[in-house]
Design a protein that fits this description.
Layout: H1 6-17, H2 23-39, H3 44-54, H4 56-61, H5 64-82, E1 104-108, E2 120-123, E3 128-134, E4 139-144, E5 151-155, E6 164-168, E7 171-178, E8 183-190, H6 201-208, E9 213-215
């Protein structure tokens, strides 16, 4: 009997997608998944985001929705085998949920105000989103379902300015205080983190496994 590990979970998804993953990517991704399992930050969405971010082959084979469903199904099959409920595991094939008409929506998050306690909410569950943030305009927003298909584009940041990144459990806070303009930029990404600790963009993107921030 075997319990679920980062390695056998990844191997199950490779079997379900029918793709090939090179040895280095496989080792790195297996370790990342194992870290999630060990530190209690594992979820089907977090595992799917990591797989899609680390492996182009897996990303091309299945969208996040289909991949998340497969992770949930395969994990349950692995656990059932560990408990002796099944003798041999047959992992089902993944049907790609991307029909080629997938579009990207551009959406400004220059709304709300921390100073006035006026928060706005966005949901990135359907499709891909590019959230644009003008550093010189106040922002106070909360974004849920932000994944590898989404991105935040920041403009009008002074040369000496820098956004701050911090973890709040599984959430991520992205902030910038534009003193000259008297405005505060505050973006909270819900459920995108893995409870990792970081304090800059590099650490943030390493933790979530994909390039989420672009400075225009």
């Amino acid at each position: 009997m075997s319990i679920m590990t980062g390695r056998n979970l990844l191997e199950s998804i490779i079997q379900s997608t029918g793709v090939e993953v090179n040895t280095l990517v496989s080792a790195t991704l297996s370790a990342k998944l194992q870290q999630m399992i060990d530190n209690g930050t594992y979820s089907k969405l977090a595992a799917s985001i990591a797989m899609s971010a680390f492996s182009t082959a897996i990303k091309d084979a299945a969208g996040i929705g289909a991949l998340s469903d497969a992770v949930e199904t395969n994990a349950a099959l692995i656990e059932a085998a560990a408990e002796g409920e099944v003798d041999q595991i047959e992992f089902p094939s993944i049907v790609n949920d991307d029909d080629g008409t997938h579009e990207t929506t551009t959406c400004s998050v220059d709304v709300g105000s921390v100073l006035e306690n006026d928060k706005h909410y966005f949901d990135a569950a359907e499709g891909s989103f590019v959230f644009t943030d003008d550093a010189s305009v106040a922002t106070f927003v909360e974004i849920s379902n932000f994944t590898v298909d989404d991105q935040i584009q920041i403009s009008n940041l002074p040369a000496e300015g820098s956004y701050m990144f911090s973890s709040d459990g599984n959430d991520v806070d992205i902030t910038y205080n534009y003193v000259d303009e008297g405005v505060v930029n505050y973006i909270k990404l819900i459920g995108v983190g893995n409870d990792d600790v970081f304090d800059d963009e590099t650490g943030f993107e390493n933790a979530i496994g994909f390039n989420a921030i672009v400075f225009a």
